Each structure stands twice: as C-alpha cells, then as structure tokens.
Amino acid sequence: MANLADQIEAYLVSLFESGDVYELEVQRVEIARFFACAPSQVTYVLATRFTPERGYLVYSRRGGGGFVRITRLAAQTQFLADMLEATGHPLTQTQAASYLDWMRREGLCSAREGDIVRAMIDRETLSLPLPGRDQVRSRLLRAACLVLLAGTVRNGGPEGPVGSDPEG
Amino acid sequence: MANLADQIEAYLVSLFESGDVYELEVQRVEIARFFACAPSQVTYVLATRFTPERGYLVYSRRGGGGFVRITRLAAQTQFLADMLEATGHPLTQTQAASYLDWMRREGLCSAREGDIVRAMIDRETLSLPLPGRDQVRSRLLRAACLVLLAGTVRNGGPEGPVGSDPEG
DNA sequence: TATAATGAAGGTCAAAGAACGTCAAGGCAA
DNA sequence: TTGCCTTGACGTTCTTTGACCTTCATTATA
What we know:
homodimer
C-alpha cells in the first residue's frame, strides 16, 4: 500500500481531520511538489478517491490564483448512496419526483428547493426527445443532490468561476 | 483569493456595501495605485465582474476629470421582464450564472438555491451538444426563476439562513 | 475669438504567465 | 494479463501587464 496515490489520499484526508473542516482548498502543484510527482497524479487521486460516492465534491479553478477545493458531503447513509447510484441511470419524472419527496421529508431540502428542482426536471421544461430526456434528468437530479448534500457549497459570488464563456 | 482581480472585485463590492449605496464613482488610476497594478487590470475586473448580467452598469469618462461610475441595478424594477426576455433565447453558462448572482444579491433566492440551479445548468451536467445546450439551459433557468419569483411574492423574504428551513 | 497644443484621464488588444485538465502510453504488481 | 499507477506532452482557462490609442478639459496662441 505504499503507492503514491494512496499516500496522497491519506494526506488529504489527514488535512480534513486535523483541521476538522468540511472544506479544503489546496493547489494541485503544491501537493505535487510535496510528493515530488507529476501534477496530473493529483488529478488522478481526486478523480478516483474524492468522488461523490465516497462522499466528496471537487471544484477547481484554472488560471492565476487557481485552486482545487474539496468538499466533504454531509452524512452518508445507504439511501443516499443508493440515490446517487440511481442518478447514474436514466430517471423518469415520477421516479425523480419521489426522490425529491424523500429528501424533503428527511429535511435534506426545503419545499421551495424541491419545487425548483422539480420544475427544472419537468418534461415540459426539458423538452427533449425521450431516450435522452431521462438521462439528462438524472444528471440534473444528481447535480442538485450533490449541492444539497454538501451542506454549504460555496460556488458563486467573488469566489466562483468568472470570465468569458465562448463554450457556453 | 490569491489573485488580484478577485481582491479588486471584493474591494469594490465592499465600497458598495459599507456605503450602502447603489452608485460608485472611482478613478481607475487610483484603484490601480491602491493595488499597485496596471490600470488595465481594473478595466479587466470591470469587464468580467461588473457586467449587466450581474446587475451592474459601468459608465466612464476619459480626459481630465475622468472617472468610472459603477451602478448597481435593483432587481425589482425591470428584472422580471429582462430575465424572462433573456430566458427566451439561448444562454451561456456564464450569462446564466450571472443572473443567479444577481438574484442572490437582491434577495430573490438563497445562496443554496442559487448553487442548486447553478449546478444544474452547468455544461458538464447538461452534457449536450452546443447549439441545443444553451437553449435547454435557458428553459431550465426560466423554470427555476418562475418558482423563485412566485415564492418571493408568497413569503417575502427568501434570504433565510441557508439550508435551515426544511419546511419552508 | 477661434484654434492649436498639452496633459490628464480611460480604452484596447495582444502577449506572456499561471494554474488546472486531458489523454495516451508505459510501468508495475497481484 | 489485467487493472491500477504514473508520467509527460499538450490543451484550456483565467490573470496580468504594457504599448499604444482615444477622449476631454484646459491653456496658450494667432
């Protein structure tokens, strides 16, 4: 178990625990320097270890002042894991709605938050042909759930991504 | 927040907030001197952060006695009309996110609600080819806005403590 | 009085720099 | 020999700067 990826993972986890925080902001190149490895190695660790299924969210920003932010998701229950698993597959409007109902009952989201997501995954709103529609819906629900589970994800305002967006 | 652009943005926003004003008049060269940077850096910040989509208007005048005036637009007036107009045509991720920034600042949605919608309209989440992606995004934002605005009318202040309102 | 010169703003744009991401190819271990 | 690791070349995004341009008010000049 002496491989680098595991060491880097352990190091990052230790930062979470020693600091007792739910959010970490590091620089990829710093970690790479610390472990004397290629920066892309850090990306690899983030991609394989710090996944939503394992309870983490990763957000990064390029350019000067760039960084990598790792957020630890709130409580991990079996149902949440199942739901994240479910959002990996196409979902009908009814299925998606029932997940939202559940989250609402569990206090994981407010009624209004549920309404927002519900409106956005509505078939009329999506207005896409059917094989793809359910796939897009599941991705949307997943994205929403990740934010809900993150507790407080800072992603906008002065800290958020900014600038021209030719790609849309 | 290691980069200059973010610092300058934060500084300008703080001027708005500490003064509790909707209009600011500064000199580009003064800001540049204060931050010990090139004046064009200030122009860059204005161009990327203080955009109409984010609810700001910038007017400037050259020559002796020149200045830069930043106006913070209030949401209530033309906001709904503009937003619905905007959501009638394709929207890039940056444009959409900027509208969300604005709504949050104006108290039309909470930070978490903004994050949810932002995550759902992300290009990675949508994962659709480009001509259509921006169209779907605009429908999604529109759907979300309609819920947000309806909620505003119903209960007045949406800007509650983030994530602590499971009944709301 | 008109006009020209001057200096004081801010604007534009392209290039360089600073991060992070992607991907394919090779390495290594069970 | 299959499936992770690891690396490095190359790509994208965002920032920062500096050289050069335009606009405006003021002052000097014909």
